[in-house]
Specification:
Layout lengths: L2 H17 L8 H15 L20 H21 L1 H11 L6
Helix pairs in contact: 1-2, 1-3, 3-4
Bound molecules: zinc ion.
Organism: Pontiella sulfatireligans
Protein name: Nitrous oxide-stimulated promoter
Pfam family, one: YgbA_NO
Length: about 100
């Protein structure tokens, strides 16, 4: 699994545990969201050089999923630095980069 997918997965899990209370896993909606995010990331035209999704020029998420992932990321973003510092820092560094480089 690539870094973007790992970051998305960590953020979705964190949000789900705190907000939906599913013990030891994801609730049904978040499982669907995570599978969707992984699939979108796997098919990203920028491949390994992709920017983080919220800065991407393609906007490949359909609106409903985009809304859900944004909710999870707004919640988990500030918490990432404590729970997953390595992922958080690498995500930040990549968010400063332009697409395709
Ligand atoms: Zn959930």
């Amino acid at each position: 699994m690539n870094l973007e997918a790992r970051t998305a997965s960590a953020m979705i899990r964190m949000h789900c545990r705190a907000r939906h209370g599913a013990a030891g896993g994801l609730c049904a909606e978040c499982s669907v969201l995570l599978a969707y995010a992984e699939e979108r990331i796997a098919h990203c035209p920028f491949g390994a050089g992709k920017p983080v999704c919220n800065q991407c020029s393609v906007h490949c998420y359909k609106p409903e999923m985009r809304e859900r992932i944004q909710t999870a990321m707004r919640f988990s973003g500030p918490r990432m630095i404590w729970r997953h510092p390595v992922l958080a820092v690498r995500h930040l560094l990549r968010s400063k980069r332009a697409p395709g480089r």
